[in-house]
Write a structure and sequence with these properties.
Alpha-Beta Plaits, 319 residues, ATP-binding cassette domain-containing protein, alpha/beta, binds adenosine-5'-triphosphate, six-stranded mixed β-sheet, Rossmann fold, ATP binding
Length: 319
Amino acid sequence: MGLRKVYRLKDREVLALDDVDLNVRQGEIYGVVGQSGAGKSTLLRCVNLLERPTRGTVRVDGEDLTAMRRPAQLRAARRRIGMVHQHFALLSSRTVAGNVAFPLEVAGVASSRRKRRVMELLDLVGLADRARAYPAQLSGGQKQRVGIARALASDPKVLLSDEATSALDPATTESILELLRDLNRELGLTILLITHEMDVIKRICDSAAIMEAGAVHEAGRVLDLIGTPGSLLARSLFPLPPTDAPDAVAITYPRSYDEPLMSELTRKFDVDVNVLGGAVETVSGQSVGRLNVQVRGLNRDAALDYLDGKGLLVEVAGR
Ligand SMILES: Nc1ncnc2c1ncn2[C@@H]1O[C@H](COP(=O)(O)OP(=O)(O)OP(=O)(O)O)[C@@H](O)[C@H]1O
């Protein structure tokens, strides 16, 4: 809360976080998006105190990490926070099992318990048969599975993910996102991830924040944000190509509708409806999306008011 981070360089200061408040609920997947330099990585590093914020507090699982002054206390708290990296950060000289065992060795877990735990973790990420392989023998997706297993070794409550899928192809990205979603559901794991891919937000995030120049521009549950007029997140999740078609309107569906709204319009108001473009997809179990639609006819205004009354967001240029 109230996180501020100033990097002090030789000749100047960089304000990387400017009063950032983020409230991640227990058990949810929270995505932070933003352009390069927005402060996402700094935020993530401040959450596990790899970077000490200049001001503000970080509370994880009810504990104020920023108030902990004893290194041992902070180390113990950090064990409850796992971290997954974009480029996997595996030790090339160690096998898959050796990589996952590493944090357990550091924590002083006895050898027999360690071995059992490593196999459990590899099972969890679907890599039990690759325990003896070396990182160089693995695909990108498998490497990230090792990274995730290692991050879960100390049984964390929270997983931080720094662009975990950015180095992966679309199909592998999909399978890693599915794994994160499964771990979130099965273990009740809270996940805070940073990404520059809106698709990641669409696919697995319950909540999201958009960061710009060190500040949170917009934050909340994804479905709520999609239903908020003028939401940057909604526009970024479902970008509409510009259109100069006459009588075009942008319609946002913030939830699923049982009734066929567009055909109702033509029937009830005798207007012509022409879908120009857009997308409707399933987000958090709801069909949501945005469409560019041309609505023409004498009763156009009444038709648009009808959609508005149904809870759709109707944006008319110049209205
Ligand atoms: N260790 C550092 N020392 C000085 N300035 C830094 C340091 N780390 C980040 N910055 C600066 O802080 C700002 C925020 O950087 P940060 O890496 O957090 O952004 P980001 O949104 O994660 O971007 P990217 O996706 O490119 O990593 C940038 O202006 C960056 O140059």
